[in-house]
């Protein structure tokens, strides 16, 4: 029997405001537990929430970027439930009138473009955090995160595989960083998702019973969790059982999902408009301001990189995957004056390779674009070869010296004097008569032997173009 997977994601993006959504408390990460939760966050008697305007602007900016409907009128509601890290006993969220309505996001999977609908994106406050380690069987509660502004982005159930879900999640992750509304740090919990998963027989119209996989904070775990949950559901149905609608947790160590609690419906939360908060009206002036702030978005940047820099689609996609990386590349092209393809090769291969090896982001690169440009200039003017440039790059990575300083200090200038190269080649030819005879008899691969010997004798400093030119003249058949 063939089965079809149906997936919808609820992505929680922590907005990059300096203060919380309804109070002036700091949102900075890493403070001592319970030092950044004020009376408003804790719901003390007599306090009143005040909406953070910047959180509204960020939500509107996201809505515009996905070509969504922006509500003229938006309402905050109380979502009532009881959990140790929810100090007020309710969460301020949105139900009937979210700030962002229907939109879409296009994803690419296996070379094909697919459109995933976005049902809504609404503002809400985050809860605190329960800590289960180092408390000798007890649970610690840190309320620093309580009241942090979240944008919950709810997709339509348009994804049909874990690969679809990862591609969609990556695109949202990319977008919120481009918009500067979320830092996207998944390790710190500022970008995470819940996955709603069900299966149905191929050709069946109605959806199967879904389960919700809660609080997954890595792309790898999203893919693994969905795949293992799909297998679990199919096994149950094929054995004659039924799927229970519930919330489940993914255990990465055991690579399994396990039941957390029965899945609540909206009426279980007893939503009602928050009596302490007025409705929000999005003015034409605010819309115009936000629209003017929109940056060049990832898809448009990819298209421009392909058109303006003649890059292939894969390279353009890699370079535009983050705004910082795209800016580094463009700054490098301008500063160095070199061909864009040469610049892209150095960025995607050498620079990103070194960054990945040390687990660094492009913003943490020890080699800024101006220093990298200095290196590429020395390749372009034949001061050094591409091979020597890699040695120079390694030295730049571990020091503050620029390319010129390293080249001079290590004596790495390329030998371009044809007389000096010719003298080296004459000696190699004289010392290797057997190889000369092999080449002259038609064994073309032996030519590489002479190139290698020449480069070794010159300690890699002979100009490769001159070496090939002189060898071809000396070894005429």
UniProtKB/TrEMBL annotation:
Keywords: ATP-binding, Ligase, Nucleotide-binding, Protein biosynthesis, Transferase
InterPro entries, alphabetized: Asn/Gln-tRNA_amidoTrfase_suB/E (IPR017959), Asn/Gln-tRNA_Trfase_suB/E_cat (IPR006075), Asn/Gln_amidotransferase (IPR018027), Asn/Gln_tRNA_amidoTrase-B-like (IPR003789), GatB (IPR004413), GatB_C_1 (IPR042114), GatB_Yqey_C_2 (IPR023168), Gln-tRNA_amidoTrfase_suB_CS (IPR017958)
Molecular-function annotations in GO: asparaginyl-tRNA synthase (glutamine-hydrolyzing) activity; ATP binding; glutaminyl-tRNA synthase (glutamine-hydrolyzing) activity; transferase activity
Domain Asn/Gln amidotransferase: 327-475
Enzyme Commission code: 6.3.5.-
Alphabetical GO biological process terms: glutaminyl-tRNAGln biosynthesis via transamidation; translation
Top EC group: ligase
Source domain of life: Bacteria
UniProt catalytic activity: L-aspartyl-tRNA(Asn) + L-glutamine + ATP + H2O = L-asparaginyl-tRNA(Asn) + L-glutamate + ADP + phosphate + 2 H(+); L-glutamyl-tRNA(Gln) + L-glutamine + ATP + H2O = L-glutaminyl-tRNA(Gln) + L-glutamate + ADP + phosphate + H(+)
TM region(s), chain numbering: none
Subunit: Heterotrimer of A, B and C subunits.
The family this protein is said to belong to: Belongs to the GatB/GatE family. GatB subfamily.
PANTHER family associated with the record: GLUTAMYL-TRNA GLN AMIDOTRANSFERASE SUBUNIT B MITOCHONDRIAL AND PROKARYOTIC PET112-RELATED, GLUTAMYL-TRNA(GLN) AMIDOTRANSFERASE SUBUNIT B, MITOCHONDRIAL
Function: Allows the formation of correctly charged Asn-tRNA(Asn) or Gln-tRNA(Gln) through the transamidation of misacylated Asp-tRNA(Asn) or Glu-tRNA(Gln) in organisms which lack either or both of asparaginyl-tRNA or glutaminyl-tRNA synthetases. The reaction takes place in the presence of glutamine and ATP through an activated phospho-Asp-tRNA(Asn) or phospho-Glu-tRNA(Gln).
Protein name: Aspartyl/glutamyl-tRNA(Asn/Gln) amidotransferase subunit B
Biological classification of the source: Bacteria, Pseudomonadati, Pseudomonadota, Gammaproteobacteria, Methylococcales
